[in-house]
């Protein structure tokens, strides 16, 4: 059995080279040769190092939920290559590289939000043909799943982030319009309103920042993809505008790596997958180019594991099975 961890160092150089040499794919747009920054640079931004794991997911999937529990990466639901919502939970052992089907969720879904609560994988909303209000969980210890409760409203296209012991559910779509509400939960069952975005957003990229706030970048509003970047303060419940990305983007990934927050990939206003990576520094109010992904990708699930971040699956003209690791620039 090939170990994911042992081979990452071997492919690092090739993956780094691929950042600039990947062939264009239908539905994917390569990064611009000289990306603009949205504000004055405060010095050379740190650039994450991306490596593509040689052990992919067993099948292409986009818009899935993924979390790490006990050194195992669990990828649940999502849309397959036939554009069908799934209920399968795939487990990837990050130390051995073993990939297996760990179980199934109660209901198939895509475009949901996820979190680990009490050692279980919680899935909030999502849906198939319509948005759902179901909160369901998967127990890795037993391979079983169950319905835990209901959201205040049916939601798909929402994002989630953990700050301390609280999981925040941000934005989404209720079947009629993009949503502004930010919800919070500590147990996955009781859900309360924690704040409100200035505008309704579907598919925003969200991540914690080093100072305990939450970055909300891009997404789709009533007028289409947006470039706005907001900061949500969990303590006060207030949302303030930080600035703008150089171009509108939705379906992107956002993550905290070390003390730095990044926004990566996504779909541009034309609907093409992009490879851009942007470093966001809330204290300085800057948004700067930080290189690019190995290939353009949107709708990848983001998982924080130890000191690194994994991007699982995604879309670039079609669903992909890639597992990509991001580590801090040494």
Q: Would you mind describing this structure in some detail?
A:
There is one protein chain. This protein has 330 residues and is mainly β. It has one domain (4-20, 48-327): Neuraminidase, CATH 2.120.10. 5% of the residues lie in helices and 48% in strands. It is built from one helix and 28 strands. A hairpin with a 2-residue loop joins strand 17 (220-221) and strand 18 (224-225). Residues 1-26 and 29-37 have low confidence and may be disordered.
What's a quick, concise take on this entry?
With 330 residues, the protein is mainly beta.
Q: What is CATH's topology name? A: Neuraminidase
Q: What integer value in Å does the Rg equal? A: 18 Å
Biggest sheet layout = 4 strands, antiparallel
Order of helices and strands: HEEEEEEEEEEEEEEEEEEEEEEEEEEEE
Query: How many angstroms separate the termini?
Result: 29 Å
Could you give the order of strands across the largest sheet?
Answer: 2-28-27-26
What is the number of helices?
1
Name the average pLDDT: 88
- Overall shape: it is globular
- Number-wise, the strands total 28
- Helicity, as a percent range: under 10%
Supply the CATH architecture: 6 Propeller
Instruction: Identify the CATH homologous superfamily.
Output: Kelch-type beta propeller
| CATH C-level category | Mainly Beta
- Uncertain segments are 1-26, 29-37
